[in-house]
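Propose amino acids for all 274 sites.
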């Protein structure tokens, strides 16, 4: 085993142990604080990739928007009506940014900067914003564990199958290493993870009702969603000439690199079960 692989495995297990410790032994406030921290780092990484970090007003406003959206939605996720306020706040930040710099300067990039800002504010919220509301529900901690298990088992299976028998590229222009065989293996890995979770729930948490059929349906749909989240982040990096979103986790990259598969999964989990 190479040193790089050892580092990846060591820090991967360490990060997993930390997350599971917070999830099962921490209170709701600690989970919320962790989500706020993760979302803040994710916004920082997004602005580094896209260059928005050079716009100081936008950068600071984004931190406030992401934090406020997750905090205010920690009991019940905010509805899409909040989209208008996020659009307004980010546009106001763009206006102030350009107005304070030079009101006569060309605004060729202002529209793209605004669109990036809006998406960039929602991106961390999609990943982290639904975790605390789910944890607050009856048996919610187990459902978050299920979501994490399905995504990361699927990711591991996709990597292993792709490395071993992968031949047909999934989208080589965006992610050269991903294959169709690996994608199928990822779905199968997620189904296995859901089945194992069901038996764990039955053995250790019998009071929580978990229909096996619903678990498998969730895994079957969540697996391709996780892969779409992975591709989305790969497209973001590829379009901006970045290799990793950051270097926070040695051997893994940044928060976005490690959590991109969660982009759509917890939103779906919340809607399906709650």
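Proposal:
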């Amino acid at each position: 085993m190479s040193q790089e692989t050892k580092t990846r495995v060591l820090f991967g297990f360490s990060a997993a142990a930390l997350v599971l410790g917070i999830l099962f032994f921490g209170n709701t406030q600690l989970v919320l604080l962790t989500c706020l921290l993760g979302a803040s780092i994710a916004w920082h990484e997004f602005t580094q990739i896209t260059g928005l970090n050079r716009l100081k007003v936008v950068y600071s406003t984004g931190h406030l928007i992401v934090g406020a959206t997750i905090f205010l939605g920690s009991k019940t996720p905010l509805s899409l009506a909040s989209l208008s306020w996020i659009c307004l706040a980010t546009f106001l930040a763009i206006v102030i940014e350009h107005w304070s710099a030079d009101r006569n300067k060309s605004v060729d990039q202002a529209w793209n900067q605004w669109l990036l800002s809006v998406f960039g504010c929602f991106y961390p919220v999609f990943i982290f914003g639904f975790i605390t509301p789910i944890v607050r529900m009856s048996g919610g901690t187990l459902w978050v564990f299920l979501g994490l298990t399905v995504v990361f088992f699927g990711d591991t299976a996709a990597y292993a199958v792709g490395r071993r028998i992968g031949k047909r590229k999934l989208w080589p222009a965006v992610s050269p290493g991903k294959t169709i065989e690996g994608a199928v293996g990822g779905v199968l890995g997620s189904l296995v993870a859901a089945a194992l979770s069901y038996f764990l729930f039955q053995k250790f948490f019998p009071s929580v009702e978990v229909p096996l059929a619903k678990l498998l349906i969730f895994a079957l749909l969540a697996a391709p969603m996780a892969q779409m989240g992975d591709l989305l982040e790969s497209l973001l990096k590829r379009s901006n000439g970045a290799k990793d979103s950051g270097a926070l986790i040695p051997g893994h990259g940044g928060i976005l690199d490690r959590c991109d598969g969660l982009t759509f999964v917890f939103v779906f989990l919340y809607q399906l079960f709650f």
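The first strand starts at residue 169 and ends at 171. The mean pLDDT is 90.
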